[in-house]
DNA sequence: ATCACTTGTGGGAGCGCTCCCACGGTACCT
DNA sequence: AGGTACCGTGGGAGCGCTCCCACAAGTGAT
């Protein structure tokens, strides 16, 4: 009621100008207070803040965006259909990390799906209109043109999971190589001798790295290389099942499997069951992701956990830094950041 | 390359003014073309469109928002933590409906979670800043202050699932009453005589309506009312289990159960199994929502399907209408719309 | 006292649009 | 011929902010 009565006669929302008049200062001073500039005396600041409170002033975002040429918004672009987004806990965790990192900034997060061609088209328009200050890109395939589009438009962007070792965008990733090594070394430590591997989709860089980690861990432990112990999967349950069946046929003596994802491991488990192998007595099984599947599997699955929430957090840190750096357009192109976060092996009954 | 060379020397994005100069027309005319006004001659329109294409002109959203006092954005507000949002397929379906309804407008959708107090606070600021033209509210509890806040700020809003029969906001809902009747009539039609009901959370209006539908269907079929056949649930699996156990104790002769949600039915199924009752031979079971759970249950669960995707679609229709109507500020307050969509019974093996 | 800085402040200019008024032209009536 | 209507068009004004320059007042070295 008080706040209502205090409103200017115009009836609309109060403007900077009105706040300035009320506080007995100039427009520029109010702007400084609102934006937290240090070059304001304490007395003036207090007067302005009082006026802001009395009038219930809230800055007009559109005016600010127009004048300052920024939007205070960033987009989380998911180049997948909504369905995938909801199905995989990965996104939920990522979103939480991103959200918490953003919660004490004025930045706003937009969630944009670009699964269909139509949505792609819209996204391109959207980016061309520079409606966001920066972009977070998750789950990008190797041949996706999106990252290049972003570079061309000079929009700051951070990618989760680089497309290759030569990724040009700033990226955040978990240590796929190290995680795989952890898994394999764990199996070796448990006395397993014949450790097979079901890969992920090898057009995904992270999947390649997991396979590299598997190979190097075995080599460093003095195991002889055996390509017959490696079978390609595709991150799906059916793929895991098929791969496991093939491995059992080729190397019936195997006593451990490292699968490139939990879902893959679930498929492998089926195939092992069908073949009458007990887990972990006959064959130890380790997955990757530490998803809900791992916890609920029978027996519970040992798995490599990625700090997804933290990855989201770090992505925001890097993106905000990149946005801030953009102002002086010098000294770009250098200092490309490729952040890699450590993984953790969660041991359960399957190994 | 052509488009790059065609850019104005300023290097930045082309403006309306530059397009106007290039097309040899005035600023206003370009604006008319961009906004699809009919009061432009075909020749002029073509010239402007050519200039737009050559320069790669994209309107500046901030400038438009400032001048026109609208944002071309609407928010889908979810007063729940992210976790719930991802866990329930309801939201995913809703989002798809909303997205498709929006895809041929210039409106952009923002997804806002307001589960914690902190997020609530942010949301209030956000709405006060009028950063969206309208709001879609899903999953609102009876005592939530959010709807009133929206009314006070005079922000157009549509709610899914009215809070009561006296809902003041425009709302879209599925026919909970009718859906429950369908379920119960189906059971009666199958010759069941003693039909129990596990309710949802009764502080949710839709849950009340389902219970009303159950009661009325029985009454209209000439069954005598028996409150011992009704037990309160809370939409959770554990609640369903507990309620079912209680019902079995009170009325061991029951031969059918209508549960207020699929999850509740899943709980009931456990309790029935433990009690040695076979489904559907001894007890028929019907759920509500037709979620993935229903399809994957053993046996597959008969369930009432709500057209959630269509609800999302209709919500957008109503919201856009309300936003458009707002311009002439007369004739508001009347014509409150409460849209109710029909449900459909999906019969499976459990009944 | 003079100069050179620094600090806090006011307000002009301008961001890129939309809205709207004014104007010339054409068409159709008297 | 004059009057009236409408159509298509140009461009001024203004949306509410940020940026930046100018300037007054204070500070300290000379």
CATH topology of the largest domain in chain A: Rossmann fold
- What's the arrangement of strands in the largest beta sheet of chain A? 2-1-3-4-5-11
Low-pLDDT stretches of chain A are: 1-10, 328-332
Number of strands of chain A: 12
Assembly annotation: homodimer
What is the general shape of chain A?
A: elongated
What descriptors fit this protein?
homodimer, 351 residues, alpha/beta, Rossmann fold, six-stranded parallel beta sheet, six-stranded mixed beta sheet, 15 helices, DNA-binding
Question: What does the model show?
Answer:
The structure is a homodimer. Chain A has about 350 residues and is of the alpha/beta class. Chain A has three domains: about 60 residues, lambda repressor-like DNA-binding domains (434 Repressor (Amino-terminal Domain)), CATH 1.10.260.40; about 130 residues, Response regulator (Rossmann fold); about 130 residues, Response regulator (Rossmann fold), CATH 3.40.50.2300. In chain A, about 45% of the residues lie in helices and about 15% in strands. Chain A is built from 15 helices and twelve strands. A six-stranded parallel beta sheet of chain A has the order 2-1-3-4-5-11, with helices on both faces. In chain A, helix 14 links the parallel strand 9 and strand 10. In chain A, helix 2 crosses helix 4. The longest helix of chain A is centred in the C-terminal third of the chain and has 18 residues. The radius of gyration of chain A is 26 Å and the shape is elongated. Chain A starts with a helix and ends in a 5-residue tail after the last strand. The N terminus of chain A is likely disordered. At the A-B interface, helix 5, helix 6, helix 7, strand 2 and helix 8 of A face helix 5, helix 6, helix 7, strand 2 and helix 8 of B. Chain A binds a DNA duplex (30 and 30 nucleotides) through helix 2, helix 3 and helix 5.
């Amino acid at each position: 009621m008080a706040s209502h009565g205090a409103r200017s006669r115009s009836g609309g929302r109060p403007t900077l100008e009105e706040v300035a008049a009320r506080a007995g200062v100039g427009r520029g001073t109010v702007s400084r207070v609102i934006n937290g500039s240090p070059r304001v005396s304490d007395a003036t600041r207090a007067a302005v803040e009082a006026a802001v409170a009395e009038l219930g002033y809230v800055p007009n975002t559109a005016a600010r965006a127009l004048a300052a040429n920024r939007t205070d918004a960033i987009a989380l672009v998911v180049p997948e259909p909504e369905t995938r987004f909801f199905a995989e806990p990965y996104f939920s965790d990522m979103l939480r990390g991103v959200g918490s990192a953003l919660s004490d900034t004025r930045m706003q997060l937009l969630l944009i799906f670009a699964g269909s061609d139509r949505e792609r088209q819209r996204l391109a328009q959207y980016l061309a209109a520079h409606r966001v200050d920066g972009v977070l890109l998750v789950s990008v395939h190797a041949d996706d043109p999106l990252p290049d589009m972003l570079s061309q438009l000079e929009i700051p962007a951070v990618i989760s999971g680089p497309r290759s070792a030569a990724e040009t965008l700033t990226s955040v990733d978990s240590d796929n190589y190290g995680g795989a090594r952890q898994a394999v070394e764990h199996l070796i430590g448990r006395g397993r001798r014949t450790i097979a591997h079901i890969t992920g989709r090898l057009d995904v860089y992270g999947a390649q790295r997991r396979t590299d980690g598997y190979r190097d861990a075995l080599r460093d432990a003095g195991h002889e290389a055996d390509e017959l112990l490696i079978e390609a999967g595709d991150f799906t349950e059916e793929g895991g099942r098929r791969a496991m069946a093939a491995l059992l046929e080729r190397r019936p003596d195997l006593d451990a499997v490292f699968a490139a994802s939990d879902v893959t491991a679930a498929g492998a488990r089926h195939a092992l069951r069908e073949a009458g192998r007990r887990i972990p007595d006959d064959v130890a099984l380790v997955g990757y992701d530490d998803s809900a599947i791992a916890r609920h599997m029978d027996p519970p699955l040992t798995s490599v956990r990625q700090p997804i929430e933290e990855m989201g957090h770090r992505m925001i840190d890097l993106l905000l830094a990149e946005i801030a750096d953009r102002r002086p357009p010098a000294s770009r192109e250098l200092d490309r950041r490729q952040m890699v976060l450590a993984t953790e092996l969660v041991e359960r009954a399957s190994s």
